[in-house]
Design goal:
Elements (H helix, E strand, L loop, with lengths): L3 H19 L4 E6 L2 H6 L1 H14 L6 E6 L11 E5 L5 E3 L4 H13 L14
Parallel strand pairs: 1-2
Antiparallel strand pairs: 1-3, 3-4
Helix pairs in contact: 1-3, 3-4
Length: 122
């Protein structure tokens, strides 16, 4: 059994993550978490977005959430960014390492990271 202090610390840590996912919908980050996405590594991507959006102080206006199949399994993990009044941006083959650039350049700076949106169609 954990001590009361340890349980309180866990509760506070998780409340930050839950609150982050509830946001205002000014900007919404959606990570594809169907079986194909999870198998391709979407869980660490989702966790990285939750942590880095919180660390960047963007929790008040950025919602991080998950969805099922986005329909492009060969490009998983897929992340879609929705902003009010703008066209959706779809990032493909995301990794937890790429998240920092998306948070800094797109979510904070307003400029999508074009190189992470490229799809090779043959």
């Amino acid at each position: 059994m954990k001590s009361l202090a340890e349980l309180q610390a866990i509760k506070e840590k998780m409340q930050n993550k839950v609150a982050l996912r509830e946001g205002t919908d000014e900007k919404r980050v959606v990570v594809g978490m169907a079986t194909c996405g999870i198998a391709a590594g979407a869980r660490p991507v989702l966790n990285a977005f939750v942590e880095q959006v919180n660390e960047a102080g963007l929790a008040a206006n950025v919602t991080v959430t998950q969805t099922g199949c986005i329909g492009l399994c060969q490009y998983e993990p897929i992340v879609e960014v929705f902003e009010a009044g703008k066209e959706k941006v779809t990032y493909v083959k995301m990794t937890a390492d790429k998240v920092a650039r998306v948070v800094e350049e797109h979510l904070k700076g307003g400029k999508p990271v074009a190189e992470f949106t490229q799809v090779d169609i043959k």
